[in-house]
Amino acid sequence: MAVRSVRSKKTLAIGPQLSNMPSWNWVGEDTAKELEKYYAVIKFRSLDNIPQSDYLMLVKHPLRKIPIQKIKQRKTKVIYCPIDFYHNPKQPIVTGK
User: Fold this and answer.
1) CA 87, 91, 96, 97: dihedral to nearest 10 degrees?
2) CB 51: neighbour CB atoms within 10 A?
3) Residue predicted with more confidence, 76 or 97
4) Of 8, 13, 20, 87, which is most buried with the most CB atoms under 10 A?
5) Do the Cβ atoms of 47 and 16 come closer than 8 Å?
6) Predicted structure pTM score
């Protein structure tokens, strides 16, 4: 399968980038590096300044702190990676209500 040219790559924002968090290094940073082959990756540091993108990958932070509805209005697809956040299988269900 051929990789698309740089011009036609969809954008993927990944963050928030926290260099002092091991989970950022092994999920955020490593994933960003691998996905740069297929997407124009934008790493961001602040939940207050989430860049415009086709896809948004949120690492670690609880969704209640993130303006998801505002992001979805931009037609951005959201990928959520709740690293070390949920401690039992029912917690994601409760959060989603």
Assistant:
1) -160
2) 13
3) 76
4) 13
5) yes
6) 0.76
Task: Check: CB of residue 53 under 8 Å from CB of residue 11.
Answer: yes
Q: Residue 41 is inside which H or E element, if any?
A: strand 40-43
CB 28 within 8 A of CB 43: yes
Query: Using CB atoms within 10 A of its CB, is residue 87 exposed (0-12), middle (13-18) or buried (19+)?
Result: exposed
Q: How far is residue 62 from each of residues 8, 11, 83, 91, measured CA to CA in Å?
A: 32, 23, 9, 11
Give the C-alpha separation, 22 to 59, whole Å: 11
Asked if pLDDT for residue 46 goes beyond 70, the answer is: yes
Q: Among residues 45, 57, 50, 54, which one has the least CA distance to residue 18?
A: 45
Reported as a single tens digit per residue, the pLDDT across 79-89 is 888 776 667 77
Rounded-to-integer distance, Cα 27 and Cα 76, Å: 21
Residue type, 24: W
Query: Beta-carbon neighbour count of residue 86 at 10 Å?
Result: 14
